[in-house]
Amino acid sequence: MTSPASARPPVIEVRDLRTHLVTRWGTVKAVDGVSFAVREGETLGLVGESGSGKSMTCLSIVRLTPRSVSGVLEGTVRLEGDDLLTKSEREMQRIRGRKVAMILQDPMSSLNPVFSIGMQMREPVAAYHGLRGGALRRRAAELLASVRIPSPEARLRAFPHQLSGGMRQRVVGAMAIAAPPRLLIADEPTTSLDLTIQAQYLGLLKELQERHHFAMIFVTHNLGIVAKMCERVAVMYAGRVVEMGPVREIFTSPRHPYTQALLESVPRLGAKLDRLTAIEGQPPDLARLPAGCAFAARCPRVMDRCAEAPPELEVAPGHTSRCWLQAPA
To answer: Could you tell me which residues are beta bridge partners of residue 186?
Structure first.
């Protein structure tokens, strides 16, 4: 039976997204044929090692790829039917923040250290709601209160360096939901937070999602966070999604050897191990990817067929894997 959530049209639908950056070392295939969709109120987790293409996928969606190098951006990114890759920069400026918001892992890179919190809050509130004067200040304070910042009026007068890391991250979250958006991209937003504040912040994000019904893409290295926050997960390796499916099924029945290795490398409470499982070798050079499976050189189950590009196979309803192990003999 189709659930009500799966019956809703996707808020964001990415199809065959490719971000290739032309550098002096060659063409770097940072994102190489990524496809997924996220519906209203749903959270999709993007996981994988550093350099797997998670953050670049998110930056490609909002058209903020590095301008210091020339590159190619191809595919389709449909936000409620509109293809963002066909929009002009002026049109994207109206979409960023209003319809798609992004929370970065380091709040100090999002907040200007020389402006007060109030001055920085006023910009999105004025742009999205057209408020001025006292109404603008009251709305900014309401947004800070909505992310559980105590004494919001006083915090508007503070500067970023006067707030803790967790408080700064909440300010960035308040700015992100100012519109509120239809899609929120959270790019490792808990990296700089300690475990106690991290748990509070994750709970706050889920509460905000339930209140505003936005779709969310959550980028993280932490599989424990994926289990807590996400309904579905996409595992990325070398710019490609190698496995995607419901969180419970990915955790209990992973099909791709890379996903299995990631899960085996996580410490388990009560397990007696001399040392954790490690994935041998290094990720491939994205400017010199092999013709076949990019994980083949590190895979303990490599076969001759792995020299050929693996197909994307549906191994269970809603669960896909890009591996020859699941292909018919």
So the answer is: 103, 218
